[in-house]
Structure formats: C-alpha cells, structure tokens
Amino acid sequence: GTGADNNLYINQAIVFIEDAIQYRSINHRVDSKSLWLYRWYYSRTCQWILSLTITIILALAFVEKPSSLTITSDVRYRLPAWNPPCGLTESIELLCFLVFMVDVSVKSYLIGWEEFWKNKWLMAYILTLIVSLTDWIVSLSFFCTENVRIRRILRPFFLLQNSSMMKKTLKSINSTLPEMASVVLLLAVHLSLFTMFAMLLFARTKDDQQDKEWVGYFRNLPDSLTSLLVLLTTANNPDVMLPAYSKNRAYSVFFILFTVLGNLFLMNLLTAIIYNQFRGYLLKSVQSSLFRRRLGIRAAFEVLSSLKETPANAQQSYVSIGALLQVLQKVEMDSRCKQAIMRSLKMCSCDQLSAAQFQKLFEELDKDAIKQHPPSPQYRSHFLQKMQFAFGHPYFGYLGNVVALANIVSICVVLVMDADKQPSERDDFFLGAINCFFILYYLLEMLLKILAMGLKRYLSYPSNRFDGLLTVILLILEIATFAVYGFPHPGWRPEFMGLLSLWDMVRLVNMLIVFRFLRIIPNMKFMALVVTTLLDLVKNLRAFAGILVVVFYAFAITGIMLFKGAVVPLGNTRKKCDFVALLGHFEAEIIYCLLYLPFVNLICRWAKIYFVAWWLISSVIWVNLFIALLLENFIHKWDRRCHREPLSDIEYQRTVELMFRDVLEEPTEEELMEKLHQHPHLQLCR
User: Fold this and answer.
1) Span 539-569, pLDDT tens digits
2) How far apart are CA 376 and CA 358, in angstroms?
3) How far, in Å, CA of 654 to CA of 370, rounded?
4) How far apart are CA 604 and CA 280, in angstroms?
5) What angle do CA 488, 492, 493 make, to 5 degrees?
6) Would you list the DSSP string of 541-602?
7) What pTM was estimated for this model as a whole?
C-alpha cells in the first residue's frame, strides 16, 4: 500500500483501540477526515464543554421563575426570590441548544445515514431539541409569562443521552419492569383488600366518641387508601392505629397483619426479584461491553494487518510489532496499561503478532487497577534503622489508635460535665490543655511515620493522607487559638475575638478530632471491607447517580408546575397553623402544617397521585435497585476476600465491568469476524 493508505490504517487502528478502551461502538465512518473529527469530538476538551453545557442548562431551574432558591425554605421568613429579566436565562438556554445541535449533528454524521435510522437515542435527541426550541419560541412570544414550560421537563434527557453506561442501566431497568410490575400489582391487591376490610371494620357508628378512627383515617375510599399506603411506608405508624387500639386492643391484629404481609413479605420479595432480574440484565449489558472491547481490538488488528507487511498468500494475518508500537505512541490510554503492553512487547522474541497474541496483549485493559506503594528509605545508620523498625511497625499504628480513643473519651467526659453549664460558667482550660497534648502527639506520630516510611510511601496510603491533613489543620487551628486567646490557663473563658469565639474554635478542633478517629477503620478487616465496598460503589455509581438526578429533576420541575403558589404564609392555611402554634405544639408540626397541608386541601385530592408516583419510583424501585448493586458489590468483595488476601503493599480497584469479569464469556473468532464484516463503513481484505 501507499504511504497515505498506511497512515489511514494506523489512524483507524488508533481510533479502534480507543473505542475498545471506552467500550464504544466501532460502527462509525473511518475515512481520514471523519477519524480526525471523531477524535476531536471525543477529546477531553469537547467532552468537557458538552458536560459543562449540560450542567448549565440543568442549573437554570434554580434561578428561573418560580424558583424559590432562598436561604430559608420557611414561607413565613424567606425573602422574595430573584426573578431574572425576560431573555437572560433564555439567551443562555439558546447557547446550550446550539451546542446540543452541533453535538447531534456530529454524532449523526459520524455514524452515517443508515445507522442513524437504527439509533433511537439520536432520533429522540433530535425530537427533544425540536420540542425544546419550539417551546423556547413560545416563551419569548409570551414575554416569559407562560406558566407551563415543557422544555424544562425535557432537560434531563440531555444528561441521559450523553452517558452510555446510563443508557445501559436504563435498559436494564426497563427489562426488569415486567417482573417488578407483577409484585407491585400484588402489592396493590393487598392494599385494596385491606382497604375494604378497614372500611367495614371502622365504619361509622352513632357514637362520635367511638368513631375517631373513621373520622381521622377511614372516612371514605381515598382517605382509607391513603392511610394504609402511608402505613406501608411506616410514616404514620403507630398513629393510624391508636384511636382503634384505645377502643379495643384486638384491632391491633388488623394493623399487624397488614404491616407483616406488606412490609416483611411483599416489599422484601420485591427486593429479591429486583436483585435477581437486574443482576441478570446488568450482566448481559456488561457482556455486550466486553464484546465491544474485543471487537474494537480485533478491528485494530485487521486494519494493521492490511499494511502489506505479510506475504499475500499467507494463511494467517500478522501485525508487526513496529506498527503496533507506532499506534501505541498515539493512543490515549491509561499510562499503567500502556507501559504494561510495551513491556510485554519488549519481552516478546518474535517480530510479528498473530490475532490471538494481539488480543491477549490488550487483556491488560481488563485487569484490576493495581497501585503499588513506593519502597521505604534505606538508612545506613544503625540507630535510624532501629527507629524505622519501631515506628514502621503495625504496633505503632495500634498505639496511635489507642491514643485517639483516649482523646475521644476525654472529650466525651468534658462535654458531659459541661452539658448544662452556661457559656459564661464554662471553663475551657481542661479541654484546651488535653487538645494541646493530643495534637502534639499526632504531629509527633506523623513526623515519625514519615521518618520510617519516607514521604512518598507515607503519602501513597489514603489513611495517612487523611491522618496527615487533619493533623496539619488541627495544628493550624491550635496555633490560631493560642495567637488570639493565649495559652490555656485556669479560668480560660470563651470570649469573642475575631471571626470565631474561643468556644467555637475549641468545638471545631474537637469535631475534627472525632472525625480523625475514623483512622481505625483500615485496621478492622470486616469494617474495612464494608467501607471499601461503599467507596467502590460510589466510584461506580455515576450511571445510577445520573439516572437518580434525572428522576429527581423531572419530579421537581413537575412539582413546581403543579404546586406553584400552594404554600403561602397567609390565608386559611396560615390561620390553622397559627392555631396549632397557640395550642403549644412544636415548631416542626407548624412547619409540617405549612408545607404539606396545602397540597391536598388547597389543590385537589388528585395531588396524591404525584406523591404516590414519587414514592414508587424513588423509594420502592430505585432504593431496591441500589440495594441490588450494593449486594452484588459486597458479595463479590467477600468472595475475593475468602479466596485471596491481597498483599499489604498493593491496592486493588474494581469497576462494574470487572465485577462480573469471572462469569463473562469470551466472544468466538467467528462472532467477531461476522460482526466486522457487517461494519457499514469498513471493508476488510479477507
């Protein structure tokens, strides 16, 4: 081939390998200009601009009318929210729409017209933009006075379509819905039957004193359904049963049966079904991601084998190591993986790689991310060696944990003794003195550990970074306290000088000391397992968190449109709440009265549908999905802990894809080649 062809093959291989790294589809244009545009589109700068645009358009709801973004949410005390002039947020919105139009245009061009009609997400993207722009024009024509803005509810779609993992998660959730619907239907039957029983059991009688249950909770069908639905969430338990229970203890059997069947059986059955089904569909999604990675690597091999460096009559294709090294120099990938692959190439005795060798080389991408800690310094002095051994020993860390525990106990003792004292009566000498002592110990401990481990090795441990940062902050706060209020002495009274009073500064120091006590977690194996599970879950929850933002945002915007102006400080609602205050009820009950009474009484009873839908989606479905992922992550880590104890100097980091790595099936040669021959823009030589 010519030099231009060779450059094209090299660029194609670069893009295919980058697609494999990011689990992207390879069904896009592969000519020179399209490859340049493709790499530009997926560059960090472009993706950062797109992410910033999505963040801005979602954040507009916080300042748009009728936003109530104020310091306090209490309608009695909050100031009027800032109302931007017409055209300000609309101009920002238009700029965001222009970015999205460029985004959808580039995506549509890169995949080609034939693939465009198969991509439902892109078609929905274009439809969302058309509806949003139409609604934007309507807003300007009404001078921003319209009450309903459809485009605000559609904004979360821009976040949803930008993440492939969110799309897979949503597809998994959608596939799980039929099984979830069967249990939800059973839950509805359970609720309906007990509602009818309740209306018969607590029917109205002639004695008004005996009808408190009927008056408060079971007056009619909507109230009865609502009361039992709220009982299913345990929010009104045991209030809902107290009137009947005070009349006859036997009535408690009804509520106990309802709670046991609903909460203990049906809700947990729903959790089990969601875990089982969602895990299966998520596994299928991860299996397709593995296929995309293998397909991208195989596509890179096929185009590199077209460099005419092997005989034309060869029965098997090969790729030269020199061509692969040339590709690796330009590929954007993790430095750890790139270095590992290059080390393997240097150790290879042959000049060419077969398809199997090429694929095996890139299996480095599937391995755990391993972080090795730097070695400790080597001291020649015998005295320093002994110090290194003593202060680098685990027992020295245990001693630090005991000291931290003693610090916590001493703080608790002082707080208990001073709990009922007025600030003017409090003597902070003892607390200030023990804080000074313990902070000096923490500083000495940090310096000795750095001496024993070396600065690089010390900072390579997250627990040490956490420890050291808090120690430095504590030291700075203690020096600032001494500079403003002097050293602790008997009669050290809290006075207000500068930004914080003495008591405020002492409290801040003590809160940080309590927080620092979390250093014991790595030393408790089971607790460390739980914490690392949660941390790994947080790292891998971007897709779930994104969909959660979509759900919260859509419901929030819908709630703003439905209940705008329902919570007001004046009128009958305020009078009723003021009456509650006159009766001597707590402030929390007044706030509850102000916030929630208007939704049902001032709007309409159909408002309950909104809150029930919110409860079903957020609490029932989404919480159970979160539990499913949490269980999967924890069980996986527990199995790994039982089979292999990691070395102390190595940290393993897992992703959702690696979580299922042991049960995934490798695609066959025939499946990969069949898929490659179906590529709409790539013509293979064989």
Assistant:
1) 666 777 788 888 889 888 888 888 776 666 6
2) 37
3) 9
4) 42
5) 145
6) -HHHHHHHHHHHHHHHHHHHHHHTT-S-SSSHHHHHHHHHHHTT--HHHHHHHHHHHHIIII
7) 0.74
